[in-house]
Amino acid sequence: MPEALVVSFSNIMDSNSYRAEGSADPLIVSRERVLGPAYRLFYDQPVHLVRGQGCHLFDVDGVQYLDAYNNVASVGHCHPQVVEAVSRQMATLNTHTRYLHRDIVEYSERLLGSMPDAVDQVMYACTGSEANDLALRVAEMRTAATGVVITRDAYHGNTASTTAISPSLGGATSVGPNVRVVDPPDTYRLNADEVAARFTADVSRAADELIAAGYGMSSLIVDTIFSSDGIYADTTVLGRAVDEVHARGGVFIADEVQPGFARTGASMWGFDRHGLVPDIVTTGKPMGNGIPIAAMAARADVLEPFARAVPYFNTFGGNPVSIAAASAVLDVIEREHLMANAATVGDALRAKLAGVDDHRLGDVRGAGLYIGVEVVTDPESRGPDRAEARRLVNALRERRVLISVCGHDGNVLKIRPPLVFSLADVDWFYSAFTDALGV
Ligand SMILES: Cc1ncc(COP(=O)(O)O)c(C=O)c1O
User: Fold this and answer.
1) Cα(62) to centroid(ligand 1), Å
2) pTM for the full model?
3) Are 122 and 343 in contact (CB under 8 A)?
4) Substitution candidate for ligand 1 out of 71, 126, 257 with most atoms within 8 A of CB
């Protein structure tokens, strides 16, 4: 058996995390003692939050922060309609999917109704990791192959099988022997033609290698906004690569945990921007606005070999309370026109950021309210400036604005606020940002 390919890429998960070792804060000391060193905190000065509302968070001293980072509370922290729906259902009944319940069926019809007709069945889990884990199993049984193609700094979850397709976890983990890694479509450093040709060629080569090595081609799994890779919103590359995957008998898994549920402002789903119909779609994070719920939707014929052979049960996945949360999230997205808001406010924020004349800001990109700002040493060499990106994240935190970083070199500012971000929030963000830059 070939040895596992040990990936020594930068550890993105750690590039925005801080070990508060030696801190005198009693809460941090107790936390370290009971949770152990695997848990990380954001920011040089960790934030102790006690309350949230809309796009705003409040710390233990009542200080208000602008949340420009959280995509779980996607329709806003503590949205009253979600809180009410969850509370009502919690006070009524919470069981599991081995009893009949109308709400899961109605929600599933609605969710599938937002996807292409071909994607016509859905199964539920609690986390994006579980949904991707399931997707890998479904793909394996459909294709009778185990080879998986991923992007260089992908993150798809924390289970054993999804860790094996998550090189962004870095050093201590390794991708599986059945996994091949391709570069993301770096539209900042390559021109449009080059980026598409290279991505397609890389995916084809990776698939051929997997076939030659005896794993066969099972799936290409991609976060369709390439978020952990550095946020690439280009829509010209994926289609051709997916054709190559299909030609080799594989399936395409669209990981919508990040771009899904209207975040990109163009569609409910990131894959839609690419004009693609996936074989499998996975969702998570924003789906329940904080209540754990995730899903794996697929074409019935893709699901069939797995579904016939494996009785699926997930104790909490798709329970009535989580379905109540998920239904309320869809209601709020529709009623408050959050897709349109993501488009308008996202455009406004990107335009303002692109207008900042500063050599450190190499590129402002993204779609809707998924925005990346590439921090570079200088615009000529386009060299990543990880230290300055980190400084900016902390400087913003000092100005009560919360963001983080992503990308191979940890130098891309990740700006991903709740979808209820307003133009007033854009102004707050912009003034803190220019102040942090010192321009
Ligand atoms: C693209 C993507 N897929 C999957 C996951 C895993 O989701 P979860 O943390 O809910 O297991 C994440 C989490 O950050 C993610 O960003």
Assistant:
1) 30
2) 0.95
3) no
4) 257
- Whether 4 shows a pLDDT value over 90: the answer reads no
Residues with Cβ < 8 Å from 163, sequence gap 6 or more? Answer: 157, 169, 173
| Ligand 1 cavity residues, CB under 6 Å | 127-129, 132, 155-158, 223, 255, 257-258, 284-285
Amino acid letter, residue 173: T
Other Cβ atoms less than 10 A from the Cβ of 80: the count is: 11
Coil, helix or strand for 390?
Answer: helix
Q: What is the token pair recorded at 85? A: 């729906």
CA torsion, ordered 406, 246, 303, 155, to nearest 10 deg: -10
Work out whether strand 294-298 and strand 280-283 pair parallel, antiparallel, or are unpaired: antiparallel
End-to-end Cα spacing for the chain: 56
Query: In the chain, pLDDT over 90 holds for what percent of residues?
Result: 91
Report the C-alpha gap between 333 and 171 in whole angstroms: 39
Cβ atoms of 60 and 50 within 8 Å: the answer is: yes
CA atoms of 136 and 131, how far apart (whole Å): 9
As a dihedral over the C-alpha atoms of residue 228, residue 302, residue 108, residue 157, rounded to 10 degrees, the angle is -30
DSSP for 152-189 reads TT----SSHHHHTT-GGG-TT----TTEEEE----TTT
